[in-house]
Fold:
Amino acid sequence: MALNSYDEWSRLKEVIVGTATNYAAHDRELSFDLFFFDNLKVRSEWYYPRLSSAVAGTEAGARVRHRIKDRYLDELNEDVEGIVNTLRALNVTVHRPMTLDASSVEVRTLAWSAAVVPPLNVRDIALVVGDEVIETPPMLRSRYFETQFLKPIFASYFDQGARWSVMPRPLMTDRSFDRSYVLSTTGGPTEPISNPGTHPYDVGLEMMWDGAQCLRLGRDLVVNIATANHAMACDWLERHLEGRSRIHRAYKLSDSHIDSMVIALAPGRLLVRSREVADYLPKAMRKWDMIVAPEPLKNNFPTYDDDDLLLSSLYIDINVLSVAPDVVLVNDACPELARILEHNRFQVVPVRHRHRRIFGGGFHCFTLDTVREGGPEDYLN
Structure:
């Protein structure tokens, strides 16, 4: 079918589900610690010094590579296949990215190198707006070339008439990053970086932004902005979509992804972390019905070792996926959320997903919907 996806809730027809094959390690370096700052700082008893990748003319030190335990990856792969099977059972066509070859352990550019990761959280690396797929400029160095794994899928939609754009790729030297959000937040394991190293390819702040920072509401897009990097990317998006979509900026709703705070389940209906989320949304959305997620319970999560990196908060199970305006995929480890949604007349489809905190994503993160029945309706007027 032709590419067509304007919202987060209309009947889902086709979707890309990510893959974790050969997910081996994370590199603790500047972009990683900036991106995951809010979640890393929760375990403030840890001390992880920020060691950026070595660059010419500096003594920045070596990267810290954190290996992922095999048992976590094995169980994740089982759970991802469970998501795929569930969607297929619901008559959704599922596309899968190319897998990361085990020999591809590092991504390298003119300015830095980092451990490469597979295309698991595919919601982050592209944005689908109607009949256009837009590859977004990465916020993590390890994900710089991640959209390459989705090229065959994007090319197939292009052959069927879809538009296909790529936002400008950043150089991502240390001086490319706006550190104001991190420096204004107390606590956490990262060292303040008041004097980032220089590099011959420094060009100043650059646009960096993930598709998961965008909430799609037919004609309207709500975009979370926490840094100058995000704002520059939003400027590009606003100009690129002029006349087709209206952009609404939500400032510092979260450090990055909006789908950790609010998910649109149907026209006029939101799943939110708290009622305070409304203060950040467009005025027309503040009248929408807000279903407040229950407080997460620690016994809904596996127990991890002290040396395990936890990359998402306990609220990660808000990250649900709508298959229709009244059908939602929910983590089966979160029965409290399932009961609240059922009370609000949603059909809940429970699916297993154990290690969402280790791999930093829920059902919405792991998927990129490419065909839904909805169109560019105006839900805000």
Observations:
- The chain is about 20% helix and 20% strand.
